[in-house]
Structure formats: C-alpha cells, structure tokens
Amino acid sequence: DEVDQLLANIYERANPAVVNIDVAGGSGLTEFGSGSGFVIDQDGHIVTNNHVVEGADEIDVTFWDGSVVTAKLIGADPYSDLALIQVTLESAKLFPLTLGDSDQVKVGQRVIAIGNPFGLVGTMTVGIVSGKGRTLPADGPSGSSTSFSNPDILQTDAAINPGNSGGPLLNSVGEVI
Questions:
Q1: Which of 16, 41, 111, 172 would give a disulfide with 95, using CB separation of 3.0 to 4.6 Å?
Q2: 82-128 pLDDT tens trace
Q3: Average of pLDDT values for 134-153?
Q4: How far apart are the first and last CA of the chain?
C-alpha cells in the first residue's frame, strides 16, 4: 500500500548515508565499541553520538557498500552527546541526508530510525514521536563531575537498540529531525 511504499522509498534513499562506526583504542588498538552515524555533506562529514567515538584512537567507518575508511574526529560535545567525524572519500560515494526542522515536529508524527543495532547493518524501525521537549541529563567529559541537562529532546517509540546510537531519526519526507 502507499505507506509501505513510502517507507521503502525512504529506506532506499537514506540507507546509503547511514554508516557503521567501529572504534578502537589502547596500545594494541583493541575494538571497544561501535555505533552508527550519517553523512551530512559531500566533504565527508558524519554526525554520530559522542559516546560512540569518545576515547577512540582509531575510528573506522563502514559504508552501505561494504567499503571501510578511517575517519578523524573533528569535534565533540559530551554534553549534547554529539560528535562530528570526517572521512576522505570521493564525493560520488557520499550520499548526504537533508536536515529537517525539529521545531516543526508534532507528537504523533511518524518517524523512521535507521542504524546498525547489534552489528546488523542497515536496520530500519518505524514509530511515532511520543513526546517533545523532554529533558535528558548528560554527564560531562570522562572524569568530569560536571553534568548538564539536554532540553528539547524528541521522544520516540521506534525501537532503538545498542548500535543504533548516532543513527538518524527521519521524518516521513526522509529529513533528519
């Protein structure tokens, strides 16, 4: 039906922008975490969560076609739990997502999450915006006793599992909200 076709179309357009992120650290570069992220421009910038890349000495990004590229950390904000990494890759292999206006989001609106939970690449879940303006406490940088509260968080009932962190939450037009 129309809804199924809409969701399939969004997945086909958005999935090439969603990446898997594996991080390693320590003297032996032992893998210690993974998550998701999404391409935001043709310059290879990728948004993810800070907790996905925090403390990493090496960041490897796997794209939808299986290609793996090492990324560098451009910036991170532990308080908002956001990080920006960058890869060097020909622009023809980069499929940036469009950023939407989260101020326009309404409770009850359909949302789509795409990520790599449990190491399963390209997983999509669907739900609704359950609430707006939620507050989420956040710890400061590792070793810091400072805390911060993130205001205006969107709450969703779309299934979000370990490994989805950093992946996009999309509206029904395919924009990141």
A1: 16
A2: 999 999 999 999 999 999 999 999 999 999 999 998 878 899 999 99
A3: 68
A4: 25
Integer Cα distance of 123 and 92 in angstroms = 23
Q: What is the dihedral of CA 34, 35, 40, 41, to 10 degrees?
A: 20
**Full-model pTM:** 0.89
For residue 87, give the nearest of 157, 7, 177, 21 by alpha carbon: 21
- In 3D space, the residue among 68, 58, 55, 54 whose CA is nearest the CA of residue 20 turns out to be 68
Per DSSP, what are the bridge partners of residue 68?
62
Provide the annotated active-site residues: 51, 81, 165
Residue with tokens 């997945």: 11
Among 112, 109, 108, 107, residue whose Cα is nearest residue 97: 112
Contact between 111 and 127 under an 8 Å Cβ cutoff? The reply is yes
